[in-house]
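Provenance and format

Records in this collection were gathered into a single text stream. Each protein contributes a sequence line and a token line. The two records reproduced below are adjacent in the stream.
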Amino acid sequence: MADPVKPDKPPFDYIVRGLRHELVQPLHSLGLLIDLAPAAVRDEANAPWLGKLKRSVDGLSRMVSGLAEISRLDLQPSPAAPASTDIGKLLRDVGERADALRRPETVVTIAPTRGVATVDQRLLRLGLACLIDNALRHGQARRVLLGVRRRASGWLVAVWDNGAGIPDAEQDFCLSPLGTGSAARMSGTAGIGLGLTIAQHAASSGGMGFHFKSVAGRGTAAGFSLS
């Protein structure tokens, strides 16, 4: 009788998806319970508590998603799949998705762009989404511009904002995993410190250069250089 065939070791991304599913489901259940809280619980005295609980659940959900994304990019990266890309269309698509995060007082502008570059569209979209999320959620920006600058070596696709910016002394920390700026922490808008990490991983995985410049009190510019 032949020996039983041992199954192949499951790929890492399969394990990540499984763990993410196990963690996300209870988070979604908590969110649903908050949404369905009886009217008696929704009085003025309990409203702040419910708001804090919902923000905590949302933050945990973003952390789980962010950690899963980093794991996929870092530990089992998929080969980059560069393709000819209409940069203007890609920016419009990313900008439309950012509308869900935009605060009423925030103006988000998508600069008209014409040009074609060879790039992994998935990784560029992922990186830009993280940078826009940072600007809208944590940068306290009122104006955000998503656009392109033409350079001798290619394109710079970037997000510019007029938010709080990051002091020089904190920039290395903010660019490291789980690093957050003091201004965002003090204002209560700090995230979980994974957005810039994911953006940098997307850049390295897609063969793109990562650009970052921030001035305290004046804002931040971050993006990707494409050949």
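Adjacent record:
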Amino acid sequence: MINFKSELIGTWTLLKKELLRFWRVVFQTVAAPVITAVLYLLIFSHVLANHVKVYDNVEYTAFLIPGLIMMSLLQIYSFALLYVDLPILHPWVIFGFAIIGGALLGTFGIIAGIWAHRFDQMAAFQNFVIMPLSFLSGVFYSIHSLPPFWQKVSQLNPFFYMIDGFRYGFFGQSDVAPLLSLSIVTFFFIVLASITLGMLKSGYKLRS
């Protein structure tokens, strides 16, 4: 019989440990993503604002911010408001995509943590998996501005649907129907979560 009290104590202990570890390197875990996102905002908004067309009645700087927020998991919104007035039309859509997007990225992180033996392997996972998926996700552009081939490539990327649906919550406009985006992101989360649980149950690279 499952002892729920023991399970909760164990879960709380692990959560507390991870939160403390997160806080000890707060400059790396919070400040660095914020600084990076603000630099992206400054550079791309000034360079591309007059050259990239996105949604009707949505300026490029505003279009850019939801993608950056999603990639930084809600760490830069207050800073972004210093640069542009950003509407929120569907807060529950934003909340839903933030939760499922965070869960999806969390499963990526667990898989990488189990797989990697060394820090350089973690860096390789970031550079060769997460970074390409991020830059091909539509953070800096609308998918309709791409040639047909790259549109199809972007449509294979779960990060694209995560950001596109999240962006719908702000503007009420998106490249893909938000319900379809949510379904696709949820599907990828279920697949990755199943892989993660399988790795944990099998003891893959954990027993040694």
